[in-house]
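Possible race condition, two jobs.
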Amino acid sequence: MRFTRFIALATVGVSAVIATGLMAAVPSLASPHHLRHTFIGRFHRTRLIASTVPFNGDVNPYGVAVVRHNLGRLRRGNVLVSNFNNKSNLQGTGSTIVQITPHGHRTVFAHIWQSALPRRCPGGIGLTTALVIVHGWVIVGSTPSRDGTVATSGPGCLLVLDNRGRVRELFTGHGINGPWDATAITQGWRGTLFVTNVLNGTKAANGRVVRRGTVLRFRLSFHPGRLPRITNVTRIGSGFFQQSSASAFVIGPTGVGLARCGSLYVADTGENRITVIPHALTRVTSAGTGAIVSQGGFLNGPLGLAIAPNGHVLTVNSGDGRIVETTPRGRQVATKFLDRSGSPPGAGALFGLAVAPHGAGVYYVDDAVNTLRLLF
């Protein structure tokens, strides 16, 4: 069992400091009374749940999704994890989703290969952080590469798996180009899926920064005995920072989380900030990159994003192994180190995260050692 170091932050509006054109100061320590109003402030330990490496040796776990209902091979309380790399550690070539129990038993939920698909996924298979469960269907993004680099990448697709781990449908086109992360909600027999995309012009830019990353909203229809289908697609976010990277494959808009009010929070990784797209469920035009919620401070290349039960935004840093809790008003109120491995410590180790059932902690993947862990 590994213990985490806790750092508390004062309720300083970092985004407001940035807006004045001044450098954001490191917030001072908060009082114990204030900590009771944070979500991660109650958690002080981390626990190894299981290795995420399946029989075929896939590594680099990315997506994390908690199973909420028993259905087919999906078991309530278990965690699905998608792998981005194959056993040779080539990015954009991972083809497995594992299912892990809270006690650490791991099984392979799905092993996906191109020849078994209903039709071709452009570029191949490389499973990303875009992993959600909607109405018992598992939807996962594929941002594939032939040799682990963006130079040989394809636009990819969204793969739709049934509750037994079989790919039954896939979505291509509609603006899908490097699906990188996702979140979804259900509304009766309908659902809404939000997906970030990171390959719009990135390949042609050959390492230069391009600002063409998007957030797409998919309206989905679900009916018993039928495959899910897309009824509408709207680009609600655009102009996000994108850049190919030898170490990270691509840097672009990553985690997304929908608040109860209908605002969609986005981890704008390349700009080191969290932005918000208002009226994400109903808007009919793009909000661009949205409004800046928080920038700088303890953010350090935020990747995965989740909404805590108290409405705060949780992000994990690509640069230093921290989780950061930010209020909707932009105040960074708490942070903890989840990983100190690598050089610099914690860099490149964190990606997907999800709140555990009943708010009992935060599940997250540790890419440095290919594990699923729990902050509790």
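Job #2 (started ~2 s after job #1):
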Amino acid sequence: MKVVVNGASGYIGRSLVPFLRRRGDSVVVLGRADYANPDAVIAGADAMVHLAAIAHTPAGSSLPYSDYDRVNHRLPIEMLEACGRSGVGKFIFMSSVSASHRPDTSYGKSKALAEQALLAMDGPELTILRPVLVYGQDAPGNFGALLRLCALPIPLPFGSASNRRSMVYLDNLLNAVEFALRNRLGSDPFVVTDDEALSVAEIVGCIRAGMGRSASLFRATWLPPLLRLAGRKGMEEQLFGELLFEADRLQEQGWHPPFAVRQGLELAAAR
């Protein structure tokens, strides 16, 4: 199968391209320089995996919504139209659970608008994947920060963090993309997540186990109210809020994550 990957330089794309090539696919990378004339690159392809998006911005910085709209909303529309012109049979759009869970954010809103627009269009067979938080070695964003925190040689105050969080190991997500390429799934969005959700305390314990260390956690029931008082409500929600999703619809189609979440966490933390 000839597959075009748009967004190959991002965290997911850097792993997806060699992953598909190892599976025997011919992979063509669509770069930003190709956006003015994508048809020349897309010609003869069987499928496109659209990963290009604005997701993470440097700490302390912000982007206008127009940037999110241009990249996360308008660009996928242009790529689906190009695939239609070139006779590409399948279009896989990497969305996010933020499209349904956080539509009030620039990221979530732009992803939701893209989904709505793509679903209303004619053209190639469409599959929309909504991964939860993606983790793995060298992950950006919140998980990368958690890895750095767990690497510190100090006890951590998450012994009472019993809240569970759904996540997906990078290799499980790559497997889900391959599954979508090989199968006709339909266009309704599919959540992609690991086999179970763990508590933050369990997540930290698995990460530290992957680093060859004990969990070293202590209970700090005072930490959530302290974060609220400090105006860090977002951090409190991420560390002590529950966020659960199911991949039941995708599993009904026959997909199952090849790596258990505990295994994925230990592999992500291994050095």
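The first helix runs from residue 11 to 22.
Logs attached separately.
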